[in-house]
């Protein structure tokens, strides 16, 4: 009864360190970890202890006897990562090497105080790493009244197990030394220099909030949008509640075939009654109930072997949705299978080769994967009526009618006030998370990055754990070696300063009140019913009980 890692694997590697026999790979110290689509359990070495199950923050691991029918392909997928051997391997006590916690030396100007900007996975993993040391203080600044970044506003509502990682983030936020400063925008409500006056270091983990833009005629017409805007819309991000999402046509075309495209296609074709049991935004659910969409085409410019989606997500998609290929694309899959030796790519192609035919009559909203289509222009005068493609590598033109055209060609980092920015790669130039001045190539004092703004928009939630750990190790080394200037102000001064600037600042108690109110609104059938307007969030936060007198007195003493 070996254990099996399934689709929602977040790759943070917690399971690797919990495993007493080191049977989960690639581990964070191994080559291939950064690019792995998921982690895999060696069935021949697994001793079925279940330690990995409790360590996994997203509930992605189960014994092979407890898998749902949709999860069964993951038994073979885990096993296929390892060479074929007969029988069980003898147990081993070898443990994966754990990255040492960053030891913070006590200094006269201490304790170490770090401002973390952003509250998504990279920010929370950085806070966790810093708070392994007693006395360290971490203040997390977030421009929205709600924390956790793309876990709240990016992960699809039908992927609730992935969202379970917020349980881990809640535990990090409850640690001594952690402070939330939500509804505070760094760069407008408070500046980088002001943060440095109150902290030894500022660590930006702001993600990649923009989309790459497709430069073809007609983008920007009504009926065009980016897939990530639609993701923000159905996830209730307050800036996207009014996004016009036209679902009155029978076809939607999504350009690009990464995991974001798969997420959006799944939600647009899902049964609304199933979505009604998730935390999808109410306005999106109402629009989906009225939807006329019968087919979502995911159009890729290259061939099947170059598909950008990952195998776990493809397996998840094909086990829950009707996914088809037309005859020409079936031929492309066969040709790629004959020409491909890479095992992972072959696995993807095998799944594609078993898909149904697009010539079958449409009986329920379906997804069609289409290949070899390079977008040339958006059709339509005042609003999009479809897309004109050229068949990649030829002059042949193909027009595809659609009522909504979405581009899903990747995220893009955005420049941060007071920090250098590399326009070409859309990241903040850095070495191991230390921000570098472009002219001198020297580190910018007290300034660090982690997550997508450090390495670009790739990887999964848990990839940010090792990324943040690297940054924190360098930050702590700089502190220990006296390279960080002591803050001008005492630790307790920051709360008063921020409230002076932004009286509507929301702290941990405010967030707890919003969280509780959303869960209550969700009732017995939904995990939560999200507030989608900032004033409603502020009203809910205002109901938070005031801080106990003892804590207020303590905060006063620290000023
Ligand atoms: P992505 O994986 O980088 O895919 C981008 C897609 O856009 C590719 O198909 C690419 O095609 C295409 N593209 C780029 N430029 C194009 C152009 N000018 N014209 C036509 N097509 C173009 O991006 P993503 O889907 O936004 O995902 C971002 C990251 O988030 C990925 O690491 C992804 O795995 C992760 N993510 C994970 C999950 C999950 O695990 N459930 C969910 C969402 C996102 P080419 O390959 O031909 O360039």
UniProtKB/TrEMBL annotation:
Residues 1-29, 37-66 form the 4Fe-4S ferredoxin-type domain. GO terms for molecular function: ferredoxin-NADP+ reductase activity; iron-sulfur cluster binding; metal ion binding. It is an enzyme of class 1 (oxidoreductase). Its cofactor is FAD. Its EC number is 1.18.1.2. Keywords: FAD, Flavoprotein, Iron, Iron-sulfur, Metal-binding, NADP, Oxidoreductase. Pfam families: Fer4, Pyr_redox_2. It catalyses: 2 reduced [2Fe-2S]-[ferredoxin] + NADP(+) + H(+) = 2 oxidized [2Fe-2S]-[ferredoxin] + NADPH. It comes from the Bacteria. InterPro entries: 4Fe4S_Fe-S-bd, 4Fe4S_Fe_S_CS, FAD/NAD-bd_sf, FAD/NAD-binding_dom, Ferredox_Rdtase. This is ferredoxin--NADP(+) reductase. It comes from Mycolicibacterium poriferae.
């Amino acid at each position: 009864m070996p254990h099996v890692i399934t689709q929602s694997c977040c790759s943070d590697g917690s399971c690797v360190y919990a495993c007493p026999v080191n049977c989960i790979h690639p581990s964070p110290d191994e080559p291939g970890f950064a690019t792995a689509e998921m982690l895999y359990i060696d069935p021949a070495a697994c001793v079925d202890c279940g330690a990995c199950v409790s360590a996994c923050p997203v509930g992605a691991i189960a014994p092979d006897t407890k898998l749902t029918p949709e999860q069964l392909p993951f038994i073979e997928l885990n096993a296929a990562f390892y060479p074929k051997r007969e029988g069980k391997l003898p147990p081993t006590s070898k443990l994966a090497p754990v990255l040492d916690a960053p030891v913070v030396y006590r200094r006269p100007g201490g304790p170490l105080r770090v401002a973390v900007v952003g509250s998504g996975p990279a920010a929370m993993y950085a806070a966790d790493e810093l708070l392994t040391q007693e006395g360290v203080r971490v203040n997390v600044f977030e421009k929205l009244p709600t924390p956790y970044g793309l876990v709240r506003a990016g992960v699809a509502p039908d992927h609730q197990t992935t969202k379970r990682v917020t349980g881990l983030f809640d535990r990090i936020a409850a640690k001594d030394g952690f402070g939330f400063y939500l509804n505070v925008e760094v760069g407008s409500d408070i500046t980088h220099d002001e943060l440095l006056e109150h902290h030894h270091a500022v660590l930006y983990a702001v993600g990649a909030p923009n989309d790459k833009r497709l430069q073809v005629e007609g983008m920007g017409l009504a009926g065009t949008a980016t897939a990530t805007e639609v993701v923000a819309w159905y996830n209730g991000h307050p800036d996207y509640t009014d996004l016009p999402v036209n679902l009155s046509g029978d076809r939607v075309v999504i350009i690009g075939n990464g995991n974001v495209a798969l997420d959006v296609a799944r939600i647009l074709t899902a049964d609304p009654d199933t979505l009604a049991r998730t935390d999808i935004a109410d306005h999106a659910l109402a629009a989906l109930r009225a939807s006329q969409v019968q087919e979502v085409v995911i159009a890729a410019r290259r061939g099947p072997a170059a598909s950008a989606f990952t195998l776990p997500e493809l397996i998840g998609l094909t086990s829950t949705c009707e996914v088809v290929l037309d005859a020409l694309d079936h031929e492309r899959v066969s040709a790629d299978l004959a020409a491909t030796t890479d095992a992972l790519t072959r696995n993807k192609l095998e799944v594609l080769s078993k898909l149904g035919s697009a010539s079958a009559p449409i009986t329920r909203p379906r997804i069609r994967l289409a290949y070899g289509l390079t977008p040339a222009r958006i059709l339509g005068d005042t609003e999009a009526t479809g897309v004109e493609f050229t068949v990649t590598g030829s002059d042949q033109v193909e027009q595809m009618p659609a009522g909504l055209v979405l581009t899903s060609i990747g995220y893009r980092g955005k420049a941060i006030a007071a920090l250098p920015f590399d326009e070409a790669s859309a990241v903040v130039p850095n070495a191991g998370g230390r921000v570098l001045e472009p002219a001198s190539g020297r580190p910018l004092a007290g300034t660090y990055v982690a997550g997508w703004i450090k390495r670009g928009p790739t990887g999964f939630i848990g990839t940010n754990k090792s990324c943040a750990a690297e940054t924190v190790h360098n930050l702590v080394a700089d502190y220990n070696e006296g390279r960080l200037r002591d803050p001008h102000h005492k630790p307790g001064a920051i709360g008063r300063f921020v409230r002076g600037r932004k009286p509507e600042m929301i702290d941990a108690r405010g967030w707890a009140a919003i969280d509780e109110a959303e869960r209550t609104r969700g009732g017995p059938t939904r995990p939560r019913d999200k507030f989608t307007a900032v004033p409603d969030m502020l009203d809910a936060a205002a109901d938070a009980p005031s801080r106990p007198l003892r804590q207020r007195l303590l905060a006063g003493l620290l000023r």
